[in-house]
């Protein structure tokens, strides 16, 4: 048993691991290789209790990241979609927000500085009208609703917009590297009329900190899942591949890479579970989620790098999954707050504490 999971949580992890191995490993080439994530993949997770209202609202953060790590080992794309939906669902107060909902936050000219967004919402007699363009909207083609960030009286606010609402249009798909089962779209909102109930909250520091903490924890878990998958592949390869008449794993140079990988994974896991335990007992997260995400994404980068090195030139061949994981890893240092914005958040928190 790992020190950060109790017996019940360890049993739960076994259940998710078995699901991921039995169901996702079979579908992985379609989802992550060919990029064909289908509605049925999500429905299966809902049936297994790993997605949807119950999972979003009734499980603690230790359970959520455990689920994400295990799913990410088999299908990083599916886990990535779940990370986005979890953060989006945390802002939804109605049922429509509990299923396939994703964030529509970033704009072409407003990325890390999302507060400079130009999407606006204006009041009408019976609700709101939204106008603006968003990019990087994840799997917009199969989502039921968007959590749209728009300015009201020049302050950011949040709206839950059903994807079939007139005026919502997918403009184009953004082609990209890695996480093939996650597809990105430019989505426009033109005179989109929504009822009063679509309005969730005027953005406050507290609300945004919550969403970004959730994104950071989710991306930390995704990073660990990818890193563990790469590590397992590298171990098998180190045992099986023979050069100079012996397994390459018999060389100290390879053994040291294995040692570095396992230390980085364990350090990242410790920080991630420390952050979830703080949230689960109601402690203020401080910068623990930012630090865990930063640590996990950079650990993932290093582990995948070493794993591919152990594969040698064969690691670049698409027939080996490690080449896919090498591409998938890159997202973890960007989405959910880049490493630079995580460092900004951590140093701001530490300096404020120091001088408080
Ligand atoms: C796979 C993936 C999925 C995504 N999914 C979604 C989604 O579902 N919904 C959504 O809204 N968005 C999504 N995004 C967008 C993501 O949130 C942005 O890419 C991210 O916030 C960075 O914004 P940007 O790409 O515009 O980079 P920029 O903000 O232009 O940053 C470029 C570089 O400058 C650095 N930088 C910027 N400002 C500072 C600063 N103040 N200090 C130090 N360095 C700084 C950044 O760290 C980065 O290295 C996704 C992105 C990816 C890659």
UniProtKB/TrEMBL annotation:
Transmembrane segments: none annotated. Its cofactor is FAD. Keywords: FAD, Flavoprotein, Oxidoreductase. SUPFAM superfamilies: Acyl-CoA dehydrogenase C-terminal domain-like (SSF47203), Acyl-CoA dehydrogenase NM domain-like (SSF56645). Residues 103-192 form the Acyl-CoA oxidase/dehydrogenase middle domain. InterPro entries: Acyl-CoA_Oxase/DH_mid-dom, Acyl-CoA_Oxase/DH_mid-dom_sf, AcylCo_DH-like_C, AcylCo_DH/oxidase_C, AcylCoA_DH/oxidase_NM_dom_sf. Residues 207-348 form the Acyl-CoA dehydrogenase/oxidase C-terminal domain. Belongs to the acyl-CoA dehydrogenase family. This is Acyl-CoA dehydrogenase.
């Amino acid at each position: 048993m790992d020190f950060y999971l109790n017996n019940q949580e360890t049993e739960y992890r076994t259940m998710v691991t078995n699901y991921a191995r039995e169901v996702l490993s079979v579908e992985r080439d379609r989802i992550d290789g060919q990029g064909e994530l289908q509605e049925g993949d999500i429905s299966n997770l809902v049936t297994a209790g790993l997605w949807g209202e119950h999972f979003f609202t009734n499980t603690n953060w230790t359970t959520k990241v455990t689920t994400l790590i295990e799913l990410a080992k088999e299908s990083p794309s599916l886990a990535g979609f779940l990370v986005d939906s979890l953060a989006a669902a945390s802002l939804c107060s109605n049922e429509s927000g509990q299923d396939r909902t994703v964030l529509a936050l970033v704009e072409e000219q407003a990325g890390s500085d999302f507060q400079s967004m130009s999407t606006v919402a204006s009041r009408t007699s019976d609700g709101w009208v939204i106008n603006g363009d968003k990019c990087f909207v994840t799997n917009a083609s199969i989502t039921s609703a968007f959590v749209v960030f728009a300015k009201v009286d020049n302050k950011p606010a949040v709206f839950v917009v059903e994807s079939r609402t007139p005026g919502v249009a997918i403009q184009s798909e953004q082609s990209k590297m890695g996480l093939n089962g996650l597809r990105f779209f430019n989505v426009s909102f033109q005179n989109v009329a929504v009822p009063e109930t679509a309005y969730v909250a005027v953005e406050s520091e507290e609300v945004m900190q919550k969403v970004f903490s959730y994104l950071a924890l989710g991306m930390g878990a995704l990073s660990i899942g990818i890193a563990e998958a790469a590590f397992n592949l590298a171990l098998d390869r180190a045992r099986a591949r023979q050069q100079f008449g012996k397994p390459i794993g018999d060389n100290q140079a390879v053994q040291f890479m294995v040692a570095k990988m396992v230390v980085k994974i364990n350090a990242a896991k410790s920080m991630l579970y420390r952050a979830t335990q703080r949230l689960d007992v109601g402690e203020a997260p401080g910068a623990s989620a930012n630090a865990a995400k930063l640590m996990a994404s950079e650990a993932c980068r290093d582990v995948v790098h070493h794993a591919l090195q152990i594969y040698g030139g064969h690691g670049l061949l698409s027939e080996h999954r490690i080449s896919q994981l090498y591409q998938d890893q890159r997202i973890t240092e960007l989405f959910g707050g880049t490493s630079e914005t995580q460092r900004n958040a951590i140093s701001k928190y530490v300096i404020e504490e120091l001088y408080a």
